[in-house]
Design goal:
The chain is an alpha/beta fold. The chain folds into four domains: 6-97 and 198-287, P-loop containing nucleotide triphosphate hydrolases (Rossmann fold, 3-Layer(aba) Sandwich); 111-190; 295-386 and 535-638, 3-Layer(aba) Sandwich (Rossmann fold); 388-520, Orthogonal Bundle (PCRA, domain 4), CATH 1.10.486.10. The chain contains 32 helices and 17 strands. The longest helix is centred in the last third of the chain and has 19 residues, at 468-486.
Length: 675
């Protein structure tokens, strides 16, 4: 029988975590410290020590993660590890609910609604209640379901969620509550459960049926939870309830990487774990296997400023390496040029594009860079948001420019007309035909003021005399109200309109602007480049949220400026600012060898810019200013004009008696009880 030499394969902290069997444990796994390795080896160790595989429950956030860990454990030890119960909270809930459905007055043949199905069911209820007839802007099905879901996952009152995150819908609070109540009745009547219901029903089962909780505790004697910092309050409650009888639970995560509050993740779950399981042993993994020490020196200093945290100091055996570089660029375009030039330089030095990433706080931050990369035929893939030119609101605005350039462009006419309220496909086709036939539109114009306004604006556009930017400036006052009607997240989309305007300013003619924006969009550039050289896998562009868990040889973090990182949308509370700090930490710890931090000296993306307020000078992100980190851990450089950029170099954590179980169960309930 295979015998694993754990002392040889693991460092002391990892070994301590793996060999910790009974009781509650919290493993604080710093970035790049081998968290997955610990989970894999602990599964193997438990089985090797005589624990039956079916008595182990491994909860992860993706099915793939659980399958991969159990596959690796099987290779490490033997096939017994494949009998460990592993999966997501939702898949586990589905399995348990089907077995105990009758206790909750459910049909065990219930149907699970996916996101689209849930939205359609909610929309049916919304329509039956007559809320689709509001003259005022009423939230669409996706937004309503999102509000309801956040209320459930955050264990917050629906009105509180609306007040905090959707203030534009506060006036419809009672209507949304009624939709939620009727939606729940509809699902129960039809034996339908959405994703949130799976967790809600499982939690209710565990809290109201002691015999079930006891039975599950006897079956799953050892609970392991991965990425505990990403759990929402409901998931943490379920995990704690499953371990209430025996307390054999190990949760693994990193408080410094808790960055998904917008999805309902609760930072307090990992912070308060030792309060729920008093006497829990905390094991900290600090040896980093990814980055060089100069990079870790910066990231340690950044997270050291956090208001609340588990103390840790990442270190590595890779003591030498390039100091992180901070570059102050003249403006956004110079920032894009620097990144593009440096990427090409790295490729010449033997660093493949696939080993390089450009990270950013918000999806729109890469808009200008995407255009620059495309112009230089540098293939890329983007994660965490649509590619700029593929966004529907950008396509909307571009349709007006195309019409101004070619009045016979019927595709652009159709898109522009369908944006107008009360104009559907049939009416739009009639209008287009009338335009093509140069027939009269008097009757239609009398019935629709916005149609009349559109035609008047288009008539006054001169693509021969006006620059692309000038035409966009003329169209924006007309389009922005339509943007607010069409999109629930219109505030975020306004940033993209800023970007389009700034890009357009670099062109003198509408023709060339349209050609450059249409002829080689980023996706097609990627496809064509892939055909030419399959070995040259693309560069990665990613939001920080989408980059968590990944790593690259070189990382460029752009827009490291106040208002961007931290985002101006996350400055109201200390909790929001602290999560922004953790975002900075996550981004910086993705780099293995090189870390470049950039900001544009002049910011033209502020709201005041579109309102004629002009540009603003940026301030360095507070996360670098606090503790004077720029002077201590970073090589500060200034990028001059785009022509001068070439001069810059690269250096730089045993069951108790039944009466104690009951008391402990009650203490868990007290913690998670709604305030």
């Amino acid at each position: 029988m295979k015998k694993i030499n754990y002392q040889q394969e693991l460092n002391p902290a990892q070994l301590k975590a793996v060999e910790s069997i009974n009781g509650p444990h919290l493993v604080i796994a710093g970035a790049g410290s081998g968290k997955t390795r610990v989970l894999v080896h602990r599964v193997a160790y438990l089985v090797e020590q005589g624990v039956r595989p079916e008595h182990i429950l491994l909860l992860t956030f993706t099915r793939r993660a659980a399958e991969e860990m159990l596959r690796r454990a099987s290779i490490l030890l033997d096939e017994r590890c494949k009998n460990v119960s592993g999966g997501t909270f939702h898949s586990f809930a589905n399995m348990i609910l089907r077995k105990y459905a009758k206790l909750l007055d459910l049909n065990n043949n219930f149907t699970i609604l996916d996101q689209a199905d849930a939205e359609d069911a909610l929309n049916l209820v919304r329509t039956q209640l007559g809320f689709h007839k509001f003259e005022k802007r009423f939230p669409r099905k996706h937004a309503i379901l999102e509000v309801i879901s956040k209320s459930i996952n955050k264990s917050e009152d629906l009105a509180e969620v609306l007040d905090d995150e959707y203030p534009q819908f506060i006036e419809f609070t009672e209507e949304i509550k009624k939709i939620r109540n009727e939606y729940n009745k509809y699902k129960r009547k039809k034996s339908l459960l959405d994703y949130d219901d799976l967790l809600v029903y499982l939690k209710n089962l565990l809290t109201t049926h002691e015999e079930v909780r006891t039975s599950l505790a006897a079956k799953y004697k050892y609970i392991m939870v991965d990425e505990y910092q990403d759990t929402n309050k409901l998931q943490a409650h379920i995990a704690c309830l499953l371990a209430a009888d025996h307390t054999n639970i190990m949760v693994v995560g990193d408080d410094a990487q808790s960055i998904y509050s917008f999805r309902g993740a609760n930072f307090r779950n990992i912070i308060d774990f030792p309060k729920i399981f008093q006497g829990a042993k905390i094991i900290t993994l600090e040896e980093n296997y990814r980055s060089t020490q100069p990079i870790l020196n910066l990231t340690n200093a950044v997270i050291a400023q956090a208001k609340e945290k588990f103390e840790k100091h990442l270190y590595t055996k890779k003591k030498e390496g390039n100091t992180p570089v901070f570059i102050d660029c003249p403006d956004e375009n110079a920032q894009s040029v620097f990144v593009a030039e440096k990427i090409l330089e790295l490729r010449e030095e033997g660093v493949p594009l696939k080993d390089v990433a450009v990270l950013f706080r918000s999806g729109w931050h890469s808009n200008d860079l995407e255009i620059e990369l495309t112009a230089r035929n540098i293939p890329f893939v983007k994660y965490g948001g649509q590619k700029f030119v593929e966004a529907s609101h950008i396509k909307d605005l571009m349709s007006y420019l195309r019409i101004s350039y070619n009045t016979a462009d019927q595709v652009s006419w159709l898109r522009a007309l369908l944006l107008i309220p009360k104009i559907g496909p049939i009416t739009a086709e009639k209008i287009i035909q009338a335009i093509v036939d140069k027939a009269g539109l008097k009757e239609l114009l009398q019935k629709n003021r916005q149609l009349e306004e559109l035609l008047e604006i288009l008539k006054n556009l001169d693509c021969q005399a006006d620059t692309p930017a000038k035409i966009i400036e003329k169209i924006l006052p007309y389009y922005q109200p339509l943007l607010k009607i069409k999109y629930d997240d219109f505030n975020k989309r306004l940033n993209d309109l800023d970007s389009l305007l700034r890009i357009a300013e670099r062109y003198k003619t509408v023709e060339q602007f349209l050609v450059d924006m249409a002829l080689e969009p980023p996706e097609r550039a990627l496809i064509e480049a892939g055909k030419k050289d399959k070995a040259d896998a693309p560069l990665t562009l990613s939001t920080i949220h989408s980059a968590k868990g990944l790593e690259w040889h070189t990382v460029f973090l752009i827009y490291v400026a106040e208002g961007h990182l931290p985002s101006y949308l996350s400055l109201e509370t200390e909790d929001e600012i602290e999560e922004e700090r953790r975002l900075f930490y996550v981004a910086s710890t993705r780099a293995k060898v090189n870390l470049f931090l950039l900001k544009p000296h002049i910011d033209r993306s502020s709201r005041s810019f579109m309102d004629g307020g002009g540009s603003v000078f940026t301030q360095v992100s507070r996360f670098l200013e606090q503790g004077n980190l720029l002077d201590k851990f970073v090589d500060v450089q200034s990028a001059g004009s785009p022509d001068e950029l070439d001069d810059i170099g690269l250096e730089d954590i045993i069951g108790e008696k039944r009466n104690r179980n009951k008391a402990f169960f009650e203490s868990i309930e007290d913690y998670f009880r709604d305030e």
